[in-house]
TrEMBL record:
Record-linked SUPFAM superfamilies: Bet v1-like, ISP domain
Cofactor: Fe cation
Highest taxon of source: Bacteria
Keyword vocabulary terms for this entry: 2Fe-2S, Dioxygenase, Iron, Iron-sulfur, Metal-binding, Oxidoreductase
Record GO terms (molecular function): 2 iron, 2 sulfur cluster binding; dioxygenase activity; iron ion binding
InterPro entries: Rieske_2Fe-2S (IPR017941), Rieske_2Fe-2S_sf (IPR036922), Ring_hydroxy_dOase_asu_C_dom (IPR015879), Rng_hydr_dOase-A (IPR001663)
Pfam name, any one: Ring_hydroxyl_A
Name assigned to this protein: Aromatic ring-hydroxylating dioxygenase subunit alpha
Record-linked Gene3D superfamilies: Naphthalene 1,2-dioxygenase Alpha Subunit, Chain A, domain 1, Rieske [2Fe-2S] iron-sulphur domain
Species whose genome carries this gene: Gluconacetobacter johannae
Boundaries of every Rieske domain copy: 45-151
Amino acid sequence: MSEQSRISVKELVARRKAGYALEAPFYTSAEIFRVDMDVIFGRHWIFVGLDPDVPEAGDAMVVNIGPSSVIIVRGDDEEVRAFHNVCRHRGARILPEGKAIIGNVVCPYHSWTYGLEGGLKFAEHMGPGFDPTCHGLKPVALRSVSGLLFICLSDDPPADIDEMAAAMAPYLAPHDIRNTRVAFQSDLIEDGNWKLTMENNRECYHCAPNHPELTIPLFAYGFGFAPDALDEEGRREADRYAKLMRAAHARWEAEGLPSREIEHLADRATGFRTERLPIDQSGESQTMDTRAACRVALGGLTDKAIGGLSFWTQPNSWHHFMGDHIVSFSAIPIDEGHTLVRTKWLVHKDAVEGVDYDLQRLTEVWEATNRQDADLVAIGQQGATDPAYEAGPYSPYTEGLVEKFAAWYIDRLAASLP
């Protein structure tokens, strides 16, 4: 990166105005995208999958993050590890992106063979002085947070993931992620910068006019509103939601389900937020009729109406945990104008499709919502490329969490740029 480019990025970071959207280059500049991949996705904990993605010994999954490719594999000792997907011989890419079942990690170029724990087991024709112990796969830091898998490409990953893991353990334990399986995965390419994807997720200002399916189970008022802007019906709905929230939290906490908000989106390197939110009508699940989509409950839960536990992490994930299924999302940058949104629906590992759940009913709310969000991100990206673009103010009522995302992002850049 040129010194002039560094200065321009520093100037953009320095003059960012709190409470306002980011300036256009943060969404359109290839130079800033390279900084993002270095500073944000190269040095922070990135959500990449779940324990059920690699449930058995020999199950492997490859995830690409910018120029880096990472193998996540469960070893014969049942431990999950991560390695750079680069052969230690001449650097060939070893496994393609996606999932596989393997006995060893074998490079297709010259057949260098690595065990599931990363050690080099076989390298033909290397001579008597060759030491295989010096040529194992390069490890990548990996941490399972109650079954959610995070990796960090840095040799010095943020230590505060331990605090997040400890705080989230009692919230996630009732959903027993390790005893679920992935019922369906959807990969959607959004025509927008990754920050637009995340900002769109961090508010529900847009929900009422754009998400008719999602606003059946979820309350748009749960993410803020301007009291003076509500009509009489709106005030009744807001009051109903507030009362439901208080009653639900009291009941869930009494049942041993931690539910109240924990919010550290902007004050630490590994930013996160969680809260259990009511679901409307039956209160059971994020479905079109608000009732459970799967007959087999997660973790032995007996109360179907436990709402939805929301869990957000900086910089790239959000999740919804219900009594019958889990929906998990990750945003992976492709380039400055495109982002992969990967969604996974998980059910109890013993649930049988067509018997215990209908796949369309399980996925239809978020399949529709993802498509709608992709359209919104696309018009946001189009606007950011327009010469008339000017960063506007966030709503103090409905976009406070967008501001926290932007503040976290700017703070992380400011701390890393020389």
